[in-house]
UniProtKB/TrEMBL annotation:
GO terms for biological process: lipid catabolic process. PANTHER family: GDSL ESTERASE_LIPASE LTL1, GDSL LIPASE/ACYLHYDROLASE FAMILY PROTEIN (AFU_ORTHOLOGUE AFUA_4G14700). GO terms for molecular function: hydrolase activity, acting on ester bonds. InterPro entries: GDSL, GDSL_Est/Lipase, SGNH_hydro_sf, SGNH_plant_lipase-like. Pfam families: Lipase_GDSL. It comes from the Eukaryota. Residues 1-26 form the signal peptide. Keywords: Hydrolase, Lipid degradation, Lipid metabolism, Signal. This is GDSL esterase/lipase At5g33370-like. Belongs to the 'GDSL' lipolytic enzyme family.
Amino acid sequence: MDNSFVFVTIFGLLLALGNVASQAEAARAFFVFGDSLVDNGNNNYLATTARADAYPYGIDYPTHRATGRFSNGLNIPDLISEQIGSEPTLPYMSPELTGQKLLVGANFASAGIGILNDTGVQFINIIRISRQLDYFQQYQQRVSALIGPEQTQRLVNEALLLITLGGNDFVNNYYLVPFSARSRQFTLPDYVVFIISEYRKILLKLYDLGARRVLVTGTGPLGCVPAELAQHSRAGECAVELQRAAALFNPQLVQMLNGLNSELGSHVFIAANAYEMHMDWIGNPQAYGFVTSKVACCGQGPYNGIGLCTIASNLCPNRDIYAFWDPFHPSERANRLLVQQMMTGSSKYMNPMNLSTIMALDSRV
Ligand SMILES: *[C@@H]1O[C@H](CO)[C@@H](O)[C@H](O)[C@H]1NC(C)=O
Ligand SMILES: *[C@@H]1O[C@H](CO)[C@@H](O)[C@H](O)[C@H]1NC(C)=O
C-alpha cells in the first residue's frame, strides 16, 4: 500500500474525529427572553421587589440555594438547555458571564415584565423587553470581540431562542386593579389585538437581530393559577375573566406567528401551546402524578394562593406532587412535563412542529 494513501486516510480520519468532537463540545447557543417563568436570576442584580432569591426558592435546585429562578428547582430554560446538551444559560446580569461562557448563550429575562412598557411598573426596576433586545445587541458586540463578527452572526443564526411574554400584560396590567388605565382605554378583545400587534414588532426585531429559530410560548390558563383561585374562585373553578383573556390571546398569537413565518418564508417562530399543556393536568392532576393542581406548594391562605412564597409560608414536603410551586409558577416537575411536550408533543401542543423535529432538521443543515 502507498504510504501517502495511508497518511491521507489517517489524516482525514483525524480531521473527521476532530470535527465530531468540536461539534459535540459546542452545543447550539441558547438565548432566553421574557418574564419570571424564564428568568434565571437577572432580577437578583436589580432594585426590584420581583425576586426569588431567598429560601424556600431553589430548595430542590442542585445547590439547594435560591438562584432567582421562580421554581423549587429547575425552570423551563434549564430543562431546554438539558435537552440541547448544554449547561444552563447564565443571567445576562451575572458577572460570571464572560469569555467562553458567552458562547453558551445568555438569559435576558426579567420577572415582572410584559409586552408593554407599562406592564409591571409596580416592580420599579426591571428589564423591559426593549432593553432585553438592546442587551442582546450588546451581547453580540461582546462576542464579536471574542470570535469575530462572522462567527458571531453564525452563532446567533444557528441558535435556539425562547421568548415567554403576555401573562403579565393581563395579571400585572389590565387586571392589576379594577378600572386600570388599560381597561378604561380598551375592551378586552381590543386590548388583545393591541398587545399582539406590539408583540409582533418585538419578534420582528428579534429576527432583525439574527434570530432564526424562536420558540414562543403562549400564556397558560391564567385564571387557574392558585393566586387567581384564592381571589376569584368559590369552589375551585378557574377565574372566568382571565380564562377569557387567555382564550383570546393564544389563538391570535399562533395566527400572528403563522403570518410572520409565511412573510419571512421560513419556520422561524414555533408556537408552544402552554395553555393546552397545563389544562391536561388541571383537568386530571392524578393522571400526571400530582395530588392537586389547585393548591400551591408554597404560600398561604386559600389554595396557598395569597401573597408571596417566603420562609414564613406553608411549604409542602414533596414538591414533585404539586403542579404549582408558588401562587403563579409551576413546580420543577410540572416544568419537566411542559418541556417534554415542547420536545415531542403533537400538533395539539406545538405549531408547526415540535423541538425534536426542529433539532433534527437543523442538525442536517
Ligand atoms: C417602550 O420603551 C422603549 C424604550 O424607551 C421604546 O423604544 C418603545 O418604543 C416603547 N414601546 C412602546 C410600545 O411604547
Ligand atoms: C414530535 O416528535 C416526535 C418524535 O419524538 C415525532 O414522532 C412526532 O411526529 C412529532 N410530532 C409533530 C407533530 O411534529
